[in-house]
Amino acid sequence: MTLIIRFITLLLLSTSALADSFSVNEIASGVYVHQGVHEDLSEGYHGDISNIGFIVGKKGVAVIDTGGSLQTGKQLRAAIKNITPLPILYVINTHIHPDHILGNEAFVDDHPAFVGHTKLANAMELRKDAYLRLNKEWLGADFAASEQNNQVVKPTQTVEKTLKLDLGGRPLILTAYVTAHTNTDITVLDSKTATLWTGDLLFIERTPSVDGDIKGWLSVIDQLKSVDAKQVVPGHGTPTKDVKAALDKEQQYLNILLNDIRASIKKGEMMEKTMDTAATSEKSKWVLFDIVNRRNVNMLYPALEWE
Amino acid sequence: MQKRSFIYQLLIVSVLLACFSNRAAAEASDKLWPVVKEAFFAKRTIADADFMKITGPRRAESGAQVPVTLTIDKSQTDADAIKNVYVIVDANPIPLAATYHLHEALGKLQLSTRIRLETDSFIHVVGETADGKLYVASTTIRASGGCGGAVDGDDTAIRAAAGKIKLQVESPVKFGDITPATFIIKHPMFTGLQRDLVSQGFKPAFYINKVNFTYNQQPLMDVDFGVGTSEDPYLRFDFIPAKPGLLEAKAEDNEGGKFSHELNIKN
Description:
The complex is a heterodimer.
Chain A: H1 2-20, E1 25-28, E2 31-34, E3 52-56, E4 61-64, H2 70-83, E5 88-92, H3 98-101, E6 113-117, H4 120-139, H5 144-149, E7 157-159, E8 162-166, E9 171-176, E10 186-190, E11 195-203, H6 214-225, E12 231-236, H7 243-267, H8 271-277, H9 289-304
Parallel strand pairs in A: 4-5, 5-6, 6-7, 11-12
Antiparallel strand pairs in A: 1-2, 2-3, 3-4, 8-9, 9-10, 10-11
Helix pairs in contact in A: 6-7, 7-9, 8-9
Chain B: H1 2-23, H2 33-40, E1 46-48, E2 52-55, E3 66-75, E4 82-89, E5 96-102, E6 108-115, E7 121-129, E8 134-141, H3 155-161, E9 165-169, E10 179-185, E11 208-215, E12 218-225, E13 234-239, E14 245-253, E15 258-265
Parallel strand pairs in B: 1-8
Antiparallel strand pairs in B: 2-3, 3-6, 4-5, 4-7, 5-12, 6-13, 7-8, 9-10, 10-13, 11-12, 11-14, 14-15
């Protein structure tokens, strides 16, 4: 019997160790990032794959993205409460995707302004059924609490072009973009440290996934290159000071992907074959390439047939 | 000692099982087919056919645009040719994705299309001969979200663009021989299961329901589409043009919209 007890104890210990493993790094003064792991949005997904975090000013805190589940959102909130007693004034969502917004609910009782692209509320309304159903399927019990409410927390303040938020001696500049990674992309620039949070307009390590307009995205990358940023927090992957190299690498993948698909269509090659061939020269440079790249072709090919 | 280790093993197994059953997603279910079969072909016998095949990805990258290919290794000129082909996605809210009525100049059916899958499902292809014999072939595909997915963009613009057709054949054409043709028609193919922000309900179904293909006025193939066929319906199919002539496609949607396109195939 002692063995069984020992076994159960071990099991409990490992579970609590897992919960405590949520870490945030201060990458610049008052700028904290929790880096998600590179898992696919599928079975085996744990709701914690994107970069989420917060910026602390004199008056209060701005949260930037909340993770893919209520649980991840709660872990982020607990991390904030460990670092500062200041109130949470803003919860910013960089775009519509579930791995960035489904932790919003953890902050509702703080009564912050929820901030996002002008198109974000509609996008949430259109996609919430699918997102909540899939998250339940992928996350199981971890998602149960959120399922009760069956709601996605929508923005109360929107960014049409640019918006300035003040955290107390710490202005944040929010910028909205044309349809690129999605139709709801915004970036957050912390002027004090020149840190640019790009959301999924920039992927580092993880293969960029297209759910908007690849041509729009390529032009937005040019726009981001002109931002005077000392460092960048991507939507996925390790934050870096080498902003230009990261943007160049992403732009190269998207350019090759676009050109390869166009060439296939021109040659009359079917989508199925193109999924095996397009952009494969980029394969060694990215994580989750086979899954994400094929999905990109599946999404882009039928649209590019009409060019 | 023996007993204790047994309990210990049992505990591990049950803990593992609990973990997995929690995480495991639903696989394509074979429980639906008997019900679906009865709904479409009540009390009729359907034989398994090795001369018919449907292929697709094991796991679809996007539930909205799942590429599948149908082949029938039997010519349209054969006495026991398959004349009607039903493509049925068992687990879709509306299972019948399309029905194809085939004519002689198609030769052996080789047809690729793109369909919607709401969830993991069996895809059954049922072939029917002129005298009503039924044959079936199937495959399973894992997928999600193809029928109730978001529609972005402005309805007026979507409707204005609907009906544009692209029709091509692979060149050079060898008359009397197999020639692949590609047809695409711009159309949103609203399923009736997609959210509508204006009404706060669902967008009504709006879809291409018929396309007829002819070559030199002779029928090639008549297609009845359902909303299980993807946005901008796509078909690539083989046919045998005996001599130069006119390939025509005439399409209709469920609101009475009529669209057509023709392609002159020369030497």
